[in-house]
Amino acid sequence: MSMDRREFIKIAGISALLGITGKGAFELLRPGDLDAFEGQEGGAGLRKEDLPKIRWGMTIDVKKCDGQVVQKVRGVCDYLHNIPHFNNKKDEVKWIWGDTYEHAFADGANEYIDDAIKELPFLLLCNHCDHPPCVRVCPTRATFKRPDGIVAMDYHRCIGCRFCMAACPFGSRSFNWRDPREGLKGRKLNPEFPTRMRGVVEKCNFCVERIDKGQIPACAEAAPEVMTFGNLADPNSNIRQVLRVRTSLRRKIELGTEPFVFYLV
Amino acid sequence: MLEKALVGSQRYWGWIIFLLAVIGVGFACWIYQLNYGLGITGMSRDISWGVYIAQFTYFVGVAAGAVMLVIPKYLHHYQKYANIVIFGEFLAIAAVVMCLLFIIVDIGQPQRMLNVLFYPTPNSILFWDMIVLNGYLAINIIVGWNSLLAERKHVPPPAWIKPFIYLSIPWAISIHTVTAFLYAGLPGRHLWLTAIMAPRFLASAFAAGPSLLILLLLLVKKLTRFEPGEEAIQSVAKTVCYAQIANMFFLALEFFTAFYSNIPGHMSGLKYLFFGLDGYHELVPWMWTSITFGLFGILLLLIPPLRRNHTFLVVACASIFFSTWVDKGVGLVIGGFIPNPLEQVTEYHPTFPEIAIATAIWAIGALILTILYKVVVSVRQENA
Amino acid sequence: MYDANKIIPGLVIFVGLMTVPIWSAMGRVVPPPKPKLDTPVIRELAEKKCVEGKEFMKSSHMQFLITWRDEALRKGKRVYINSRGQKYYVSLQNTCMKCHSNKKEFCDRCHNYAGVEDPYCWECHLAPRDAKGNEL
Fold it and tell me: How buried is B52 (Cβ within 10 angstroms: 0-12 exposed, 13-18 middle, 19+ buried)?
């Protein structure tokens, strides 16, 4: 149930063309024009009709997920993004991880649900919400929403106030309480991706560095039978087809943040 | 006028040196924190704000409390406050400086702080908080300093400060309203997601600020020949009493909404703070002590003979100051993070360096207050 | 002026101390740095040219990198078309440092000379390493 590659490359190609040849050179001379505000798709300077019609989302098939999948996915993500490991919970940094049904669906957990589901690990990550509270509260726009819906972070700009951590209702954000390189010692680093520095917040970036190259997020690539990544804005996309036939849940939908990670049950 | 702070008794200098020593220890810890990161504190992924932000929130209240003297004096021409209103304004200056310092020590990359100005973001409440706090600091410096200058020269204060005085009234309300909005607008943090957060903050501010002011005025009276005036003290005490009653009432309202509605998320924060949750109950004794002290303070202030007795008055004000400090400076911020969004409980224990840094900021506040009050008292003695 | 005998010497001492870095370096001759361009990737290049011209890169690489950073990170514009019409993938670690894989002999030489000893790029971005994992 992985992503339809041909379709993906088509979309990515079109968006890249639009982005680069159309306005690219012009925008180089006008930095800052495209800073995306929440609720103001694309931000100032970009007309709506120019927007690529992309809204990235992900489905996670709960029943196909197990401890091994969690370990594999986490390993891939941790390596690719140089995520530090510390031996204490206090300094913990994580982008994607497994947790129980009760924790994943806190507030909405159904105690009579199938025991099989209760036992399964739920993969948790940033939901890349449509109305992200973290973006709303950030005083420097260090965290912002891209036109394709990805809630991205600019680690160069983050002042480390941790307002976003208080605002995120999903516990998806981590703070670098200490130098992350201390937690990477002795491990193989991914030379193509930076680490972070102490004093900034970080979280899952939906592999934006891969998406911009026309690839899908590494977790979805590593566990194609569990995760489907695709364009929710396209009614014919793979992810829309999956959502048409399967029943899905989203976390804390009552808060109105509109998460774009769907759990298939 | 500042040179008046350079002459003083041995006791005065001993106090200053003591404060400087406390500041020095905290400063060393802060340097350590800058080098290592905020990992030296007890904060964690789950409890991502701790002592620093809690103290910040509390002292915004202390700063806003000054308006309880400014309103009677300038809107109602209550002349009994003429002598003491400047003590309120100078308390506000010290408190706002403390607030700003608590923010600075809390952020992970303080050298990038100006990004808040380089990329102004009106949808962030923190942006507005920065504006109102700095504005309030400026207003109080302008008003306080110029009033004192005028007093020294035996002339009425210049007419142009009038607009600043009137502006300071809504501005004082704004600092604590905006600070409440930092918390009250976050989805998923049920303890904070309450429309009466701003009124609660204001009620607790109008109890905390003036109760501290009474303690300070009585101390100044004891140490110097300055006489604040018994009627003025009694009036401030009544303000404290009413505000604390409102504060306790608002807390009761929170209990009603959470427990009558029986919505688990709304109850869990209060449960953790007052009864314990999932076997975790570290803050329970603190919170009940806060309630007890708060009610005890009200009782003492409500009975006129007790209120007029300065021993009881001091006990009452100290009780209320402590009660509101625990409620806001300990419980409110920590409680908001418990349980975490995944309904797990992580408790929080501030570390020694963290407490040393916070104590140093208290000492900086005390130092500013000492110097400013010293100037006022010296000017008054010179004029007498 | 009251207390001029205290204030004026005080001011002189203050100005003297504040300007220590300027007058202590006066007259000292430091040879200008020669950043090394000899790396395996550069050796292989048919046309030894940077993304933009040498003089421009020398004077403005910092602003240039910041523009690259903001374009890539905030707008997802990962392809840069330079003044010669060539396309480059926008990345400090994966484009700049692939050619300039000798950070110590290229970046650091000028930065040390200019007194910007450690632009804190490297607190996050990984400097190129040799096969043994030592930073180059």
Answer: buried
